[in-house]
Every structure is written in structure tokens, then in C-alpha cells.
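Bug #2210: C-alpha cell dump truncated for Ca2+-binding EF-hand superfamily protein?
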Amino acid sequence: MSDANEPVNEYAATFRMVDLDGDGFISVDELKSLMRALGQEIDHVRAVEVMVEADGSRDGKMSLEEFTAFMSRYAGR
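Reproduced locally. Full output below:
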């Protein structure tokens, strides 16, 4: 039997590392920092595009649940 929270738990540690200010959300600037750390420099416009795609609540920031859903969709691409 699998745990319903398994996907969230899988990405929680990564989320906490990306959430540099510890507010429980990933901002556009934090997303840019993540991409830079992964060796993929993205400009502000592309970071906003990714945020819009991932931000289901449309509040301008990515929650752990939104991050998990986004990563689950695109992991392994």
C-alpha cells in the first residue's frame, strides 16, 4: 500500500533547499537560483513563464504541493 503523501515527501527536501527565505513558497528569484545551481541559467521572462505554469493558485509563488505536481510532471523529461 502506498502512502498518499509519497510524492510530496519525495520533493519536500528539495523544496526546502530552494525556498531560500524559508517562507514556505518558491518565488521567481528562488526558481532562478535553482536553475542557476543546476547549471541552467534562465532569464527573468522564462522564470516567470515557468512560475505561471506551475502556480495553480495564481498567487505568484509556488507552494510545496504545486512544486511537487510540477516536478512530477516534468521529472525524467
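Output looks complete on our side. The chain is about 60% helix and 0% strand. Marking as cannot-reproduce; reopen if the truncation happens again.
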